[in-house]
Design goal:
Structural class: alpha+beta
Shape: globular
Radius of gyration: 25 Å
Strand order of the largest sheet: 3-4-5-9-6
Strand content: 5-15%
Number of strands: 9
Oligomer: single chain
CATH architecture of the domain at 386-566: Orthogonal Bundle
Number of helices: 28
Largest sheet: 5 strands, mixed
């Protein structure tokens, strides 16, 4: 979703690496564009001047500057205070944070062999720097001195939260360790960062290594024309005859969903579900075991029984037993409906001549055919109304209606890739500049899969000046072809809304400190602003603003909207169980209390078997490509997507009750949720908006599990 503050970023680097020498910076460091003052619009990164050879020297220089700033805090002869210790620590390393904010985000969105090698080189340096701060007894003593006085000094709620966060951060990163335990913690943290790098590199490399080349036109039967055209374009780009399908979402999904050739569906499904599990140089099984065991040992050094127990101390769920209870309760509610979904699709397939047991490569194909028969709806009907540019315009209009925001394209802002479009975001009522928004929509081999929001700079207030954020939104949507513009599937359209919700959380932040601003909130709260936006996807009032046919200009017909709404609960049970399956896999790896070894596939099966519905396929596992939990920030936290569904269903019920564009409701959501960042505990923020704690009822009703 986004980058976190420096210490967490170092621990969860999600870059890739390949052995290759980097170029040597020949110019003086003061001429390095990453170090120089940015005389650019809104101090945006000068991507037109930044070259790969600038990164490593700039990071090394910024590290030295940061170390001097830390030493100044440690050597301060004045009595520790909130200002000279906690605030000074918060402000330290600003040049390093700025430089890393550019490097890591580019390494995910537009990487290269050279950038991957730099990531490998700098990872140990950054981990050592992080450990040197967290394990410095003099620095911790100063923070603790302020923390011990917390009830006796005048602090705002945000300042108290910053102090608590700083103190807990030291404790959770080894400040109380001594001797051999401290040395071991340092070694583990370095190994973890490097192994996460290797995991993500393998993931990207193995995914990019596969392509399905179709030479016989008959094998394209059933596939929508837009996907065929895109496959033709890919073949041309790769100088291959025929049509090329890849594991990128816009290519893979239409093939697995519509291709009539069952054997080819099986082939591409198997490739997709064996990524980094092929016994080659990109295999991730050993990396998984290493990461899981290193995390366990790290947690145990700090006095926790498991990594999940360690991680959940800063989550709304609080502990592993509450997470497992949450998952199990939703699984109990979802499974009967999921089994009915499976039975329904199976009977339908059999009625159409399918024989035998429904396999995993059959599921998307037959459920889509049933959906079309049941609701008379398919992507060929909806995609013409979701032209990317129109969707973007509509979502901007939604942000205007809810929060009074205006988006002005600024072509003077430098970009890191030609696909990127840049906007200034303004609060119209206050005539206030709010943020710069970078939007990067299309897949490429240099970009990791998925969709995410992050930032090149967080919002904060420094010396009375409100520093506004630089927000990045990255997706992998259907590309335009020679025949058609980019037309989004309904899933891509809802993904746009989801990631834009994260963007709004960053854009509307009104905090004082980087560590509390924007999306710097508990992991199981951060998905509320994004998932609540998905609720607007099927609202007629919203669709009428922008959803017009890209050729005729005709508004999306009411009967099509009705079909979309009617199909909203289709396979709700199955989809709920699938999400809970992923939560179980996550907890299976991160809630272990003893080291593990052996068959990675068997370990995954054991943890998640109660959420399995279709026949097991040997060799197909999620863990080897589950970047969220092995190379991202969601370890022991994937349940948060379902957790946030409870929050967003309950919260959106207020919009439904009072009107989806009701300004009183949207102003309250902005004031109490979006602008607050992590100033207060998430439940306090939620209750300030909703008036009470959430319950599962709204989600169960929305899913059709209860009336």
């Amino acid at each position: 979703m986004r980058k976190t503050i420096l210490f967490t970023l170092i621990m969860t680097i999600t870059s890739t690496l390949v052995a290759q020498k980097t170029k040597v910076e020949s110019q003086p460091i003061e001429k390095n564009p990453l170090v120089m003052e940015w005389n650019t619009p809104y101090q945006t990164p000068p991507f037109d001047k930044i070259k790969n050879e600038h990164y490593k020297p700039a990071i090394e220089y910024a590290l030295e500057v940061a170390k001097k700033e830390i030493n100044a805090i440690i050597n301060n002869k004045e009595k520790p205070s909130f200002e000279n210790t906690v605030i000074a620590l918060e402000r330290s390393g600003s040049l390093l944070t700025r430089t890393l904010g550019v490097f890591f985000n580019i390494n995910e969105a537009n990487t290269s062999d050279e950038l991957q090698k730099i990531a490998e080189d700098i990872s140990p340096m950054l981990t050592r720097y992080s450990n040197d701060i967290n394990m410095n007894p003099e620095l911790f003593a100063r923070v603790k001195a302020v923390y011990d006085q917390r009830d006796d000094i005048p602090l705002t709620l945000e300042q108290r939260m910053l102090l608590d966060k700083s103190y807990r951060g030291f404790i959770k990163n080894g400040a109380l360790l001594t001797g051999k335990d401290k040395d071991e913690f340092r070694k583990i943290s370095e190994e973890l960062s490097l192994t996460s790098l290797k995991y993500q590199r393998n993931n990207l490399a193995d995914q990019n290594a596969y392509s399905l080349i179709i030479k016989n036109k008959k094998d394209l039967a059933g596939i929508p024309q837009y996907a065929i055209d895109a496959a033709k374009e890919t073949a041309k780009e790769r100088k291959v005859k025929g049509w090329v399908f890849t594991l990128d979402y816009p290519s893979y999904i239409p093939f697995i969903t519509y291709a009539e050739n069952r054997e080819l569906r099986k082939e591409i499904w198997a490739a997709s579900n064996r990524v980094a599990n092929n016994g080659n140089e990109n295999d991730n099984k050993e990396n998984i075991l290493k990461i899981a065991n290193l995390r366990l040992r790290m947690a145990q050094l700090l006095g926790y029984s498991s990594f999940a127990e360690y991680a959940l101390t800063d989550r709304m769920a609080e502990n592993p037993s509450k997470v497992m209870s949450f998952i199990d309760n939703l699984l109990d509610a979802s499974m009967p409906f999921a089994k009915k979904d499976l039975e329904m699709v199976t009977k339908y397939a059999q009625s159409k001549g399918f024989q035998g047991e429904l396999q995993r490569w059959d599921w998307s194909y037959w459920q889509e055919k049933l959906k079309n028969d049941k609701y008379s709806i398919n992507p060929e009907m909806t995609k013409p109304y979701f032209q990317l540019e129109k969707v973007r315009e509509g979502i901007f209009m939604l942000a205007d209606k809810l929060y009074g925001l205006e988006f002005r394209e600024n072509k003077e802002i430098a970009k890191y890739h030609s696909d990127v479009v840049t906007y200034e975001v303004w609060d119209k009522e206050k005539n206030k500049f709010m943020a710069v928004l970078y939007m990067d929509f299309f897949p490429r081999e240099s970009k990791r899969s998925g969709a995410w929001m992050t930032s090149f700079r967080e919002q904060k207030v420094v010396d009375g000046k409100d520093i506004r954020p630089l927000i990045q939104m990255v997706c992998n949507f259907t590309k335009p072809t020679a025949k058609t513009p980019s037309l989004l599937t309904f899933d891509e359209y809802t993904t746009f809304l989801h990631e834009f919700g994260h963007c709004l959380h960053g854009i509307l932040s009104e905090c004082n400190y980087e560590s509390t601003s924007g999306t710097s909130v508990y992991r199981d709260f951060v998905e509320l602003p994004s998932q609540i936006m998905e609720n607007f996807a099927t609202e007629k009032e919203f669709l009428d603003l922008f959803a017009t046919h890209y050729q005729t200009g005709e508004k999306i017909p009411q009967d099509l909207i009705n079909k979309i709404n009617a199909s909203e609960k289709y396979l709700a049970g199955y989809m709920s169980v699938r999400q809970l399956f992923l939560g179980l896999v996550d907890m299976g790896w991160n809630n272990i209390s003893a080291p593990i070894s052996g068959d990675v596939e068997a370990i995954e099966r054991k943890s998640s078997q109660k959420a399995e519905l279709l026949p097991i396929v040997p060799g197909s596992i999620m863990s080897t490509q589950f970047g969220h939990i092995f190379a991202g920030g969601y370890a022991a936290g994937y349940y948060s997507y379902k957790w946030a569904e409870v929050l967003d269903a309950d919260a959106f019920s207020v919009f439904k009750e009072k009107g989806i564009f009701n300004k009183e409701v949207s102003n309250s959501f902005r004031k109490n949720i979006l602008s607050q960042g992590g100033k207060k505990h998430p439940m306090e923020l939620y209750k300030a908006f909703r008036g009470h704690e959430p319950s599962n009822e709204a989600l169960l009703k929305r899913s059709g599990f209860i009336k």
